[in-house]
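Aim 2 progress update. The chain analyzed this quarter is reproduced below.
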Amino acid sequence: MLEIKNVYKTFNAGTVNEKTALQNLCLHLNPGEFCTVIGGNGAGKSTMLNAVAGVWPVDEGQIIIGGEDVTKLPEYKRAAYLGRVFQDPMMGTAPTMQIEENLALAARRGKSRTLRASITRAEREEYAERLKILDLGLEDRLTSKVGLLSGGQRQALTLLMATLKQPKLLLLDEHTAALDPKTAAKVLDATDRIVEKDRLTTLMITHNMRDAIAHGDRLIMMYNGHIVVDVSGEEKKRLTVEQLLALFSQASGSDEADDKLLLS
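Predicted structure tokens:
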């Protein structure tokens, strides 16, 4: 469902601020695979997601989503393939609109507009059913303004909106980092349920090593713009934080377990 082939990305090339963010990056995700991504600041995690989303062009290499080469496609055209949730809970929703109106916008994404009634009874029933999976009671608040919700509720709603049309690839860019631990755990549980229910191919960046181990069926760790650790299946299930750090040290050739890697 996703192939990243020999991708390079350098910022400010030829200047004193030159920074190579991605170096010969390669990654292959099968349909339905849920992959967590971890690494220190500057490892290339967000650069990889932005490259996949088309926020900026890559210098070399290919990006293929669902068998389609999207390397040259601009960001707005790649949006048809993707669902994305950002770190800021305020980014993905319209605060002055109702919950059902936000969901209707997500459901109509890419469709032509008509003059029919904006939201039908059948659509309301569908939205209420989908909201139940979040376990936040929002199915009983369809007409509430989104601006009245907490940050965690808004982020959970954003997650639901991003997955409503079952994208080929779901990108989660530290989507629980701005939430308190209890709320973050609820959003992560909802993430697990939605991804499993719809068999969504997912890339989730996190700074929390325990979350990276506990969620998904595959884990990759990045360092200096490429992947240095890649574990899945039973090996991932048995991992501890200490073992993950040891794998990182072995793969990177570095004994540093510094603040960049141990933010959590």
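The radius of gyration is 19 Å. The chain has two domains: 1-81+167-264, 93-166. These observations will guide the mutagenesis experiments scheduled for the next reporting period.
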